[in-house]
Write a structure and sequence with these properties.
The chain is of the alpha+beta class. Helix content is 23%, strand content 31%. The longest helix has 33 residues. This is Hsp20/alpha crystallin family protein.
């Protein structure tokens, strides 16, 4: 009986190592998503609005493009220190070297009228909807 308990305990230990492996792998996945800016996507009557938090970024650090109905938002911060001194960091959690987010755009947008503004680290992109086309009414004339 003691032998079976030992086997069970060894198996538990093996499962614990297995769980640790996946926890560390998922932790790396979590860190990847942590480097992406948080976004909100809203829909109102005449447009969609995307708001992205980009603390530490300046307007010149951010690039927005639309290609084949996909909106791309990317940014890069130059990590070089202005004074040129090498620094030895003990903990560095604020660094965001670069990111890219992409959003598939829905049908019915007027891509030529997309606008963006950047204020205090908040990027706001307004995607106006195209005016809905009304069915065209055709008058039918009866000829004799």
């Amino acid at each position: 009986m003691a032998r079976e308990i030992t086997k069970y305990n060894n198996r538990s230990r093996d499962l614990s190592l297995f769980d640790d492996f996946f926890d560390s792998m998922l932790g790396a996945w979590d860190n990847y998503s942590a480097n992406l800016p948080a976004v909100d996507v809203e829909e109102n009557g005449d447009s969609y609005v995307i708001k992205a938090e980009l603390p530490g970024y300046k307007e010149d650090d951010v690039k927005i493009t639309v290609d084949k109905h996909v909106l791309h938002i990317s940014g890069e911060i130059d990590e070089k220190e202005k004074d040129g001194k090498d620094r030895k960091y003990l903990v560095r959690e604020r660094r965001h070297e670069s990111f890219e987010r992409s959003f598939s755009l829905p049908e019915g947008l007027d891509e030529s009228k997309i606008e963006a503004s950047f204020n205090n680290g908040l990027l706001t992109i307004t995607l106006p909807k195209s005016p809905e086309e009304q069915p065209k009414k055709i008058e039918v004339k009866i000829t004799k």
